[in-house]
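Issue 218. Parser rejects a valid record. Input:
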Amino acid sequence: MKYLLQFLKLVLLIGSFVFIGYKLTNTFNINERYLDFVALYQPKSLFFFFLAFSLMFLNISLEVKKWMVLLKPYEQFTFKESTSAVVSGIALSIITPNQIGDFAGRVLNLNKLAKLKGALLAVIGYTAQVLTTIVFGLFAYWRLVLSKSEMPALTAILSLFAAIISVFIFFNFQLLSPLLNKFKFLKKYEESINVKKKKKSDLLLNVLILSVFRFCTYLVQFWLLLKFFQVEISAFDAFSAIISTFFFFFFVPSFLLLELGLRGSAAIWFIGMFSSNIPGILLASYTLWIINMIIPALYGYFIIYKIKT
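Output the parser choked on:
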């Protein structure tokens, strides 16, 4: 049984590498996109690219810190152990629908905390990231789209109201308790999403702050890549368009390796409002995905393979 599991993990490792390479080169034709780009433009200084790449480490570190904060009331993990959990989650999220694998990958190394409770804590962390995107996205989308509608004031008020409601729900998870109590099979999990009352608000606030910093890191990375690929757009317009792209993306359920096409389409639709450099927009979007998802995932596959079974 042990050797069978090792073999299956090796198949997963090799199969994932082949699948990712195939999707990038054949389905999304990233090599052709680059040829289209260099036929019309020339990349700017490599400084922009290397800075965007280096921010990957900050991005991962923020997510690792967020995971440590969530686990702290239950189990103490070192930064290295938490990093292994985060990249394992990224690795599995790429090959599962709607990034479900992210929650499973994070709990592989848990010792004291039950796996399901750990997965629910991962959901809270993910929810904080979604909340950040929703709040920023509502205002960015209002600026680019809704402000041009027939009732800009009304849409602004509705956007603000939606943002406030979203934040309120996040800080009041206990509102889910009556719902959980109605279902016997869910009731036993009620306590797993509650931390000690003394620490709950502080913990959630810390998680939300880390999510905001991580979101801003994504923004800067995307903007730097747009600069590198010669997409001429002001920083203010770029941030509005990028945030709107992220906002759109959270409402499109998908398989992560298939969503790359949707990511490119959304980026073209929003960023294309300000620039006609379509190859540059696509390459910036794809490169951001490769830096923040593929590279950590490759490391994550090795971590999963090394886990003792």
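Fixed in the parser; the record now loads. The chain has 13 helices and no strands.
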